[in-house]
């Protein structure tokens, strides 16, 4: 069997940095890393191989992906690796093309290498207050360095591309969208939905919010909207892990007097998330800022009516398939949720429109665009280096 760390003659080695899959809170970027690795690994051109690398972890099983070799450990644990690369230090990474699936990217390339870096959002520039000061500064540094040395930055929406350009981030920026996870698609038997609902004690009707629980996701706005008590007063089901900066959701619900109408499930495996999605009457995406909005797309792909904020990326992804309200407008958010719950014809129209809109996005299409980009940046860098460029 060929050595997975050496490229085939006449082809090349693509190395994916999939560290986010092993993060304490993988979030949407962890989902992106897994889906990109899976799709890219299933669409390898002749003569190419794909492998993954991560920081040093004892257990690498959560980051294993079919058709992708590894992951292989780099000689530094996650926090150390982030500090080393922040300071421009080794380790380097082997590969003809390296794709960092987050801004955690090597600061130096060997001769003959090309780098592609995915930047998921412009939050460090547009909403730095929703990150720690350290986190915002680290992301800005890594994004700007990547813009200087990478063959291309990949962003998921035109909204992110425009925000980065406005912030002065240069370099080649390519918009390549995302898709709904295949594991969340397809029919779910009614009996399975009912079984999962019963296991969590879910009612017949509920509003749902999915995502990492952190300030930019707007959960505080949603709790305020639920506290207005608009009829029908359905419960709110919260799916996701706590990230940075959010107070305890259950305590916040208690403070607003709605603890009996808020159920926090934490992070769920896909088979349970699919059933919870299938039982929801409406999904709410009240984010202050987003780069793409995977939960929105995944809800639409299952025909769940969606209410979302007018954050630019969410508007771009949803098109006209959801109800859009101004960011931070509690009254408008409460009214929109109530309207969906009390107007069955509207709910059906949103369900149909959402499925149609979601069909425009797929991870297979993402893989096709990424492979075209990998080959293009590799060829461009080869020409540049042959001509004596640095």
Low-confidence stretches: 1-10
Structural class: alpha/beta
Mean pLDDT: 93
* DSSP summary: helix tally: 14
CATH superfamily of the largest domain: Glycogen Phosphorylase B
Domain module tally: 2
Strand order of the largest sheet: 3-2-1-4-5-6-7
Which CATH class of the largest domain? Alpha Beta
The largest sheet is: 7 strands, parallel
Range of strand content:
5-15%
Rg calc: 21 Å
Give an overview of the whole structure.
- With 390 residues, the protein is of the alpha/beta class.
- The protein folds into two domains: 12-179 and 363-386, Rossmann fold (3-Layer(aba) Sandwich); 183-358, Glycogen Phosphorylase B (Rossmann fold).
- It is 41% helix and 15% strand.
- The chain has 14 helices and 13 strands.
- The chain has helices spanning 27-41, 78-86, 123-126, 133-149, 158-166, 190-200, 219-227, 249-255, 270-279, 294-301, 312-318, 330-342, 344-358, 363-386, and strands at 12-17, 48-54, 69-73, 97-100, 114-118, 152-155, 173-175, 207-210, 236-239, 262-266, 282-285, 306-309, 323-325.
- Helix 10 (294-301) links the parallel strand 11 (282-285) and strand 12 (306-309).
- Helix 1 (27-41) packs across helix 14 and helix 6 packs across helix 9 (270-279).
- The radius of gyration is 21 Å and the shape is globular.
- The two termini are 35 Å apart.
- Mean pLDDT is 93; it is low at 1-10.
